[in-house]
Design a protein that fits this description.
mainly alpha; 3-stranded antiparallel sheet; two-stranded antiparallel ribbon
Amino acid sequence: MWFDEKNNINKPLRYAVNQKTPFEDEQDDNVILEPIVFEDGFLSVPRTNPVLQQFLHYHPQNGIVFIEIDNEKDASDEIKDINFEVDAMIEARKLTIDQLEIVYRVLFSKDPSTLTTAELRRDILVYAKKDPEHFINVIEDPTLKHQSKVRVFFDKGILMLKNNGKEIWFNTPSNKKKMMNVPFGDDPFFATAQYLQSDEGIDSLKLLDSCM
């Protein structure tokens, strides 16, 4: 069945080699049916068989069970992916030492202080090549520096995760109390960054900054 949005009806499809249309209600009663056979997962439809082309085009499993080969589209998509990768690699190479550390903390959730500059740059270049879209999104995030600061708070031990990451606790010389609960399903570091940027969390941020 193919849904005709213009007329708001379902139209039955049927491939018949002696008909001029793939729609059953537009065919006559003298139909000749033939199987459609994919050989080694491939089906070549000549331009002299437009009915089969139309049948496959309208078929509801088009794009799910089978897809149409479009070399031009495939090449365009590949070029887009390559350009995205190149752009990400260029941006990764342009990062300063400070920026490398910030991005590393956000991407890997680890303390970069134990790594050399070469190791940092290598790991970030590899990440940019592997997942260019996410890398670009991270470095273009205006809250990147703040997120990195939150990671430092945890790296330095002045904030702690407790109760399987469901609670954030202070661990400063003057404060050992619970700061917040992590909303269900949220990343604890992202949730902490959001809280510390809110009006409610501004005093907590000042306290944490004073301990750095």
